Amino acid sequence: MSAIAELTVAEAILKRRSCKRFKPDPIPRDVLDRLIDLTIHAPSSFNLQPWRIVVIQNPAQKEALANAAWKQSQITTAPAVFVFAVSLNGWEKTLETTIAEATRLGAWPEKFVNFLRGAVPGFQKALASKVREYAAKDALIAATHLSLAAESLGLNSCLMNGWDEAGVKEVIGAKDNDDIAISLLVPVGYGLDIPQFSGRLPRELTVFSEKLPPQ
Ligand SMILES: Cc1cc2nc3c(=O)[nH]c(=O)nc-3n(C[C@H](O)[C@H](O)[C@H](O)COP(=O)(O)O)c2cc1C
To answer: Which pLDDT score is estimated for 76?
Structure first.
């Protein structure tokens, strides 16, 4: 592992800024591997892990992706862009793998596994039009893990909503795949310049005790 003093979670949270331009320096392979491991350690509903993360480093792929994201400088300059796609029904194929791993680790007793096998199909079906929203929540949490892990490893990132979904799907090879939706793009690299902290709303406007005040 490249010699990096990893930051604490609090340090990473406070230091993270949305980086708009990156140096051309590549991310060392071992750092990228650690980043990916930390990202997919994220929690998800029923541990279904609906994210399907495509890491784009190839220059031609990056150019195509930039074209689907209004050529934003984060995409054009980052050495790696993480595309957080989600598979809406992929759990049907992966559930048994998830169960096997949790069982191997001794985390899920048989009773819970039996409950899950019964509950997950019904829960997912009942989501109906919300299935995409639920998968996106999981992917956003994984993307947040990525952005904080990146910071902790001396990298910078930018969470991004600014792209055209059909264009991004085409770039990752999912053009006509209705099972795939795009949740977020996250370019990662070594920041050329780091924006200043833009501040947050005063707590009184966004955090409340017990109930919302009359709106
Ligand atoms: C879900 C999400 C989507 C965002 N999309 C974009 C984007 O497309 N382009 C961009 O330049 N910044 C984007 N941002 C960055 C925000 O503008 C930024 O987080 C905010 O201004 C606060 O700045 P900070 O992240 O540096 O603290 C996005 C942030 C989030 C959380």
So the answer is: 94
Is the beta carbon of 162 within 6 A of some atom in ligand 1?
yes
Ligand 1 atom 4, closest CA: 160
What is the number of the ligand 1 atom nearest to the C-alpha of 162? Answer: 8
Ligand 1 centroid–CA 17 distance in Å is 9
Q: Is the pTM of this model over 0.85?
A: yes
> CA gyration radius for the chain?
19
Please tell me if the CB atom of residue 85 comes closer than 6 angstroms to any atom of ligand 1: no
> Where does the pLDDT of residue 5 fall: very low under 50, low under 70, confident under 90, or very high at 90 and above?
confident
- 28-44 residue pLDDT tens: 999 999 999 999 999 99
Full set of structural domains in the chain with CATH: 20-90+131-189 (3.40.109.10)
pLDDT in tens, 16-30: 999 999 999 999 999
- Could you tell me if 171 and 65 are in contact, meaning their C-beta atoms sit under 8 angstroms apart? yes
Q: What sign has the CA pseudo-torsion 21, 25, 30, 31?
A: negative
Q: How far is the CA of 72 from the centre of ligand 1 (A)?
A: 12
**Can you say whether residue 108 is alpha, beta or left, with left for phi > 0 and alpha for psi between -120 and 50 degrees?**
beta
Residues 64 and 171 sit within 8 Å (Cβ to Cβ): yes
CA distance 30 to 43: 23
The sign of the dihedral angle between the CA atoms of 171, 57, 91, 44 is negative
- C-alpha 102 – ligand 1 centre gap (Å): 35
